[in-house]
Amino acid sequence: QVQLVESGGGSVQAGGSLRLSCAASGRTFASYVMNWFRQAPGKEREYVASISQSGARRLYADFVKGRFTISRDNAENTVSLQMNSLKPEDTAVYYCAARSPSTPLHEADYWGQGTQVTVSS
Length: 121
Fold this sequence. Notes:
- The protein has strands at residues 4-7, 10-13, 18-24, 33-39, 46-51, 58-60, 68-73, 78-83, 92-99, 110-111, 115-120.
- It is mainly β.
- The strands form 2 sheets. Strands 2, 4, 5, 6, 9, 10 and 11 form a 7-stranded mixed sheet that branches. Strands 1-3-8-7 form a 4-stranded antiparallel sheet, with no helix packed on it.
- The radius of gyration is 13 Å and the shape is globular.
């Protein structure tokens, strides 16, 4: 069992930056691929980024490439999402999620409660 708690959301103007963090409980954090998803009002949840168990491999959705950076610290059981050059269309609830290697990409085994990010123009 993994419990995930996000923090760092808030309101920012377009072009600004935010850093989201996700703290995980449990001793098996390093065995999970960690992900960020988001869900905007009236839209389906969408994949944002993922990072492999060691942190060596990072994948991003096309709409955040070059702007967002995912990272993890296995010693601290945390995963972060640095978001730069934010746009109003980045407004959403952002979710941290843990995925075992056997779970399909863009799905997850455990989810956080979400943190709101609002970008104003």
